[in-house]
Amino acid sequence: MSSRGTAIPTRRTLAAYLEPKTLLMLVLGFSSGLPFLLVGNTLGYWLRDEGTSLAAIGFLSWVGIAYSLKILWAPIIDRVSAPGFGALGRRRGWMAIAQIAVGASFIAMAAIGTAHGLVLLGVFALLAAFCAATQDIVIDAWRIESARDNDELGLLSSAYQFGYRMALLATDAVILVVAEHTSWAVSYALYGALMGIGLGATFLAPEPHRADEVMNAKSAALPLTDPRGLYDAIAGPFIMFFKTHGVLAVLMLAAISLYRLPDFVMGPMANPFYHDIGMTKDLVGAVRASFGLVASLAGIATGGFAALRFGYERALIAGGILQAVSIACFALLAQPHPSFALFAGIMAFDSFSTSFAGVALVSYMSSLTSLGYTATQYALLASAYVWLGKILKGLSGTVVESLSATMGLMKAYAFFFMGAGAIGVPALLLFAILIRQHNRKAHAPTG
After folding, report:
1. Which fold has domain 21-442?
2. Which of 250, 183, 242 minimizes the C-alpha distance to 49?
3. pLDDT single digits (tens) 27-38
4. What pTM value is reported for the model?
């Protein structure tokens, strides 16, 4: 697939969004997004409600590093059928196992709670993150391998982002209302059961036969029991990626790894911040479910259009600027009981910006993969996009607490959010260089 977006706007009809494949992608996107905040920012809100320190919340967010390590087991997912679920196919079998394990992990977290200490809770959060990362590997591969062409890939990527954002809304807003009127344990048990929605979509989804033909031929020629087959499964995806993109591959990986840093770094402190400025869970949930929802949908639609109309890299630059500015704007809320209008406006701006940047990044990364190595190559790109942020976010609580010792908690939050927005600048510079290199290559004389 091309690494550049088309520069021609593509018409999307309502019928295209209502096709069975697109609707299944929407549900699978929801299943993919459901665990993300439950082992991250929302878990931080639960812990802060229980009186856990910001430093401990930041450290516990490191369970999300599992998302950045999935490249280590993606080659197995690419070449081996899921144990006990092989009849569903290579992609759907692994989806089913991962979804069942994620749901069971959240139910276990609900049963354990914080009464038995953070270690056991953290173990099950880590298990949930590991299985959620595995689910992402196969859902991403299914999305890319099921697309007939770049236009349908863009459609499926948009549907994936819609579903993913709906899950983020459910785990970032609706769950707060549920927790306020029941308990955090009930909320996590309920959301563990909701993984059954994704499991249902897995059983209904068709296995991507086009990719199966390539993988079966590869397995026949180079079985994993043969040293050459094992080498191809592990090293082949990386060799093909660097062979396809040349020296620019290094720049691509660097730009991707830096792109979502602002969002990752500020993430663990967002919900504790709302708690500390006096926002109730009902209010935060209501704003996210109203202003945030509308802004997220607008961001996804605008980001998808921008990627098709102006190219992936230009859309990424626009999304990166929006993301950095919106996160820095949280500094304006660093005061006791800020006005509702200011709070709702910044929340909506942030939802629009992160949704725009998210769909632009997913579309770009999807376009860089090669059939036959889809799961592993996309896992490489996805790992590149999360690994640095997942590591640095664990220090966010320590940074805020250190700053608060000299300037007070509210000023510390303000300084932290402005700094988090600023660290997105290097990614913008790298994508600008990539655009320049691609333009130079496109206009180079041939023959």
Report:
1. Growth Hormone; Chain: A; (1.20.1250)
2. 183
3. 999 999 999 989
4. 0.72
